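Bug #2210: token dump truncated for Transglutaminase family protein?
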Amino acid sequence: MTPRREVRSSLTFEVHDPTAFVLAVSVAEGVPTTVETLRVALDGREIRPRPQREAHGTRLELFEATPGVLQLDYTATVVGRSAPASVDALDPVVYLRPSRYVQSDALTQRARDTFPGLEGWPLARAVGDWVHDHLDYTPAATSPTGGAVETLDAGAGVCRDFAHVTAAMLRALDHPARVVSVYAPQLDPMDLHAVVEVLVEGRWVVVDATRLAPRTGLVRIATGRDAADTAFETNTLADVELRAMSIDARADERLVDDHREPVELG
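Reproduced locally. Full output below:
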């Protein structure tokens, strides 16, 4: 039986100058929801975003804001599971290329030396285990501009950093891998979360090297090459200040996970 999952995001921004926003906090297209609400308001006055769809069902909300306090509140009730992610013809091309935060070309030899003779799910599992064992989960160690190479040098980071290293090692070994932002019931500490999907025998299966939440409860938000494609907020024209952020994700039953076994995001 699939658990019922309740997810919520609440974001407060201080806007000092006219700014264009792109938000990615809604669950992806194809996630089965029975209730879903999104409210964006500037100093209490409602703003109506322009919804856009990106690749792999990512849903974006576009709008502009003048100076003031911007409040965003999103909630969704997920009942059931989404269909397994499809494999597009270009996926094996796009998700083997190095990207801004996933510098797989710089890590090819290290990956070959670390994981000789492995492929498919055994390789994906071994990479997840290795990243889990070699990185410390340390929020103070992360950088908004650092990628997989910088994370390995630091030996620490947060979920996005774990995901970048995982994806880089897999791409370096010719296994298409992508980063997914998710809501994660039982995540501790609670936040938006980032995991990796790797293409194995025609299926996108999940690797979460942080081991901080059961993969069986994850809810897809955005999918892309790295954190640049899956950021919950992007703004242009002016800088803004994130004053408050509250995330919640819950399931109506206790979730379990065996990281030795492949799991598809749903």
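Output looks complete on our side. The radius of gyration is 18 Å. Marking as cannot-reproduce; reopen if the truncation happens again.
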